[in-house]
Design goal:
Rossmann fold; about 220 residues; binds 5-O-phosphono-beta-D-ribofuranosylamine; single chain; 7 helices; two-stranded antiparallel ribbon; seven-stranded mixed beta sheet
């Protein structure tokens, strides 16, 4: 099987990128590689981290550029690196309808709250100040709206009485690193089907589901015979 090529877009620290890169290196994301990392901000630590790992790392400054014009530059680089799946990892820009249409169903984002609660900036602070007792993180497909596309996976963490936005963010981040890998695998293996707003998790890649279900039914049958 031809290895799948992941493109990561980021604007800052890059810990989610590193978690994905670690997963690829450890074989937890099998048959895939990170082909390129792109940042819209110069000096983003995530870009340094990518370069240190020997992964092609590009800065495409977004300042002053109209959204679609900028996204066209990004899309050109993603095409050059033959990217199959795009992972947003702390990418602080809304995508243009042009970009979303070009990669529909192939862009994932991670957000540090249980969407649809607390979209946008400072999601951990929003959850804390609202008084929620639980928060968490969400990996979702990206559509034209902010933090709004179909949800692939979520993880829940408690909010403790003595939490600060920073302590809550750290608890959530651990879960982010875990579920982003899981979600990438689901999508790369073709084990998601979108029905309206719902993402159904399949036992096997679409098309092979019936075979898998048949096999499972046989096993159940065998137990009872
Ligand atoms: C993460 O909390 C992610 O959920 C949000 O931005 C933050 C990026 O962190 N979208 P990092 O750059 O991956 O460390």
């Amino acid at each position: 099987m031809i290895p799948k090529r992941i493109g990561v877009l980021l604007s800052g620290r890059g810990s989610n990128f590193e978690a994905l890169a670690d997963s690829v290196a450890a074989g937890r994301i099998p048959n895939a590689g990170i082909a390129v990392v792109i940042s819209n901000r110069e000096g983003a630590p995530g870009i340094e981290r990518a370069a240190t790992r020997g992964i092609p790392a590009k800065v495409i400054p977004s300042k002053g550029l109209e959204r679609e014009a900028y996204d066209k530059q990004v899309a050109a680089v993603l095409q050059e690196y033959k990217v199959d799946l795009i992972c947003l990892a702390g990418y602080m820009r809304l995508l243009s309808p042009f970009f979303v249409a070009a990669y529909r169903g192939r862009i994932l984002n991670i957000h540090p709250s249980l969407l649809p609660s607390f979209p946008g900036l400072e999601a951990q602070r929003q959850a804390l100040e609202f008084g929620a007792r639980f928060s968490g993180c969400t990996v979702h497909f990206v559509d034209e709206n902010l933090d709004a596309g179909p949800i692939i996976l979520q993880a829940v963490v408690p909010i403790l009485d003595d939490d600060t936005p920073e302590s809550l963010a750290a608890r959530i981040l651990k879960e982010e690193h875990r579920i982003y890998t899981e979600a990438v695998n689901l999508v790369l293996e073709g084990r998601t089907r979108i029905e309206g707003r719902r993402v159904i998790h399949l036992l096997a890649p679409a098309g092979r589901v019936e075979a898998a279900q048949g096999a499972a039914a046989n096993q159940v049958g065998a137990k009872h015979s």
